[in-house]
TrEMBL record:
Classification via InterPro entries: Hva1_TUDOR (IPR021331)
Name of this protein: Hypervirulence associated protein TUDOR domain-containing protein
Species this chain originates from: Cognatilysobacter bugurensis
Occurrences of domain Hypervirulence associated protein TUDOR (ranges): 11-69
Segments for region (Disordered): 1-75
Biased composition (Basic and acidic residues): 44-57
Pfam family, one: Hva1_TUDOR
Chain intervals with Low complexity compositional bias: 21-32
Taxonomy of the source species: Bacteria, Pseudomonadati, Pseudomonadota, Gammaproteobacteria, Lysobacterales
Length: 75
């Protein structure tokens, strides 16, 4: 990961964009190898990890690249 890529830890609150708008959830783990979530395969590596997140709204999990996630602060 480059120095300007966000780094998150398990338990961090994050938000991301979806086709339905912005949603938020929690980091549940770091993915460092190919893995599936939501019918999609993420091609993560140790050098380019991705994050497994659980949606607060639906409870479903997904895997996102670090650049797709932003820290979330509830209003």
């Amino acid at each position: 990961m480059s120095n300007d890529t966000p780094k998150f830890q398990k338990g961090d609150a994050v938000e991301w964009n979806t086709s339905q708008g912005t949603t938020h959830g929690t980091i549940v783990g770091t993915v460092t190898a190919s893995a599936q979530a939501g019918g999609h395969t993420a091609h993560a590596t140790k050098d380019e990890p991705q994050y497994r997140v659980r949606s607060d709204k639906t409870g479903s999990t997904a895997i996102h690249k670090p650049g797709a996630l932003r820290p979330y602060k509830a209003d």
